[in-house]
Amino acid sequence: MPKLLIIEACMVNFADDRGGVHQSAGDLPDVPKDAARALVTAGRALYAKNTDDPDKQGRNTASREMLQAAEAMAKPSRKTASTASVIVAEPVDPTA
Q1: How far apart are CA 12 and CA 3, in angstroms?
Q2: pTM for the full predicted model
Q3: pLDDT digits over 26-36, tens only?
Q4: Which of 28, 58, 59, 80 is least surrounded, with the fewest CB atoms within 10 Å of its CB?
Q5: How open is the CA angle 75-21-55, to the nearest 5 degrees?
C-alpha cells in the first residue's frame, strides 16, 4: 500500500469495514492502490515515494520539504503542551 501525503482534507476509503475515514491535510496514511490513485487524480493527495507514483517523472510525488513539514506538524509541540491551560466557565445564574 502506498503512503500518501494528504494535501486537502478528504475521506479515504481503506477498503475495509470502516468505509470512508476523514484525513486532514498533512496526514500520511497508507492507502490501497486504487484509493491512492483516485485521491491523487482528484488533487487531494501526493505520493510520499517516487516509486509508488505511476508517473515515473514524479509529477505526483511530494517534495522532501513537504514531507518534512507534514512530519513536523504531526509531532506535538513541547511548548504548546506545557503551556496549555484549561478555561472553566463559571455557571450562569438564569435569575440574575
Answers
A1: 12
A2: 0.74
A3: 999 999 999 99
A4: 80
A5: 80
